[in-house]
Amino acid sequence: xxxxxxxxxxxxxxxxxxxxKFGKIDKVKVPRKVNIEAYLGNVIHRVxxxxxxxxxxxxxxxxxxxxxxxxxxIEKVDRENIAVISDYLGIDDYLEQGRxxxxxxxxxxxxxxxxxxxxTEATLRFNLPGTNFNFIAKIDRLWKNENxxxxxxxxxxxxSLPRTDDINFFHQxxxxxxxxxxxxxxxxxxxxxxYFLRFGEVVRDIITPDRLDVLVEDIKQEIFAIxxxxxxxxxxxxxxxxxxxxxxxxxxxxxxxxxxxxxxxxCENGDKQKLAFDKTTEYLDKYIQSKTLKxxxxxxxxxxxxxxxxxxxxxxxxxxxxxxxxxxxDEKFITKSRxxxxxxxxxxxxxxxxxxxxxxINARSIMKEVYKKNLLEPEQMEKLKKYIIIEESVRVxxxxxKDYDPDENHPED
Length: 413
Hints:
It is a single chain. By secondary structure, the chain is of the alpha/beta class. Among the domains are: 4-232, Lambda Exonuclease, Chain A, CATH 3.90.320; 340-385, no CATH class. 46% of the residues lie in helices and 14% in strands. The protein has helices spanning 7-15, 17-25, 36-56, 63-74, 91-109, 167-183, 209-232, 256-263, 270-311, 340-352, 363-371, 378-385; strands at residues 4-5, 34-35, 82-83, 116-127, 134-144, 150-156, 190-196, 201-205, 315-318, 321-324. The protein is extended.
């Protein structure tokens, strides 16, 4: 299917593939919640756009007018429809933070006429180099500074600063740089910068061509993962504290059973929902018991091993039968999980010694590291595709409540 990607849409897939499917694939229409932090950031961006656009025309917007504009934009959404994530901050607290950020930025950068401005809130389209993957990038401000460098500016109102190796900074600003290079090839000496209004700090970087090549490969792998998910309709829900603020909460397959149990509503699949509850309870009970039993068996195995050495005996009798105990020391070659570098050296040495007849194909690694990442030429990929089979599997991942004790569980008949 054809779609346009963006830094934010890739982030949405990373955070929760199911949410990505609801919003980007199925385009489900649901009442939208207004997250106060996101909404505050959007309003501040609109105020900054006014300040910089007027400044570029030598018109300074007075601070009181900027704050008034901020208040007017905020009030466009009914407060009852604004979701507050924090446990200790209210809407007014966030608004005060917004006014403070704007005031500090205003005093630092007025009259907002520095350099040559090429645009604000500019939406740029481009294809990821070497692909037909279409991207959209929205640049907060594009301008040439006093040193003659082109600056791609992004305003941030978040609560954390990126580290020098922050992958999110690299991916976002790298995509923005690709967008500018494609749309404005005449612009050279590009620098990227994120302005963190909450701290009054600017994080800058110069992304070189070789780093852009790395970025393109990273993004390609993310898109291949999305295409795989579309191909097999595999969009698992990734649960987190943010689920409570998700627009698709009531539609989420990870939440529907709990919603049914909490509401105890009659529905078409009510009997199966109740059966699922019973089966889940039984599975959790057995799972906890098996974990406990394995730990006990491992401890007993160690005890018997020590007794075998101390007593110089290899068989012990017990009520109901006997056990044989074998303690030995053996030689093994290094494994990849123990040391990747040593394992690579061992592999190279085996080839050198003509021991390749003892090599076995690691089909799982070829699938994960080569085929899924589309690393071969198209005709080579087609040759591999001949040997691919499609299998369905079920994976059950239990999450046990800390205070749950299966011995005290007495489900109703």
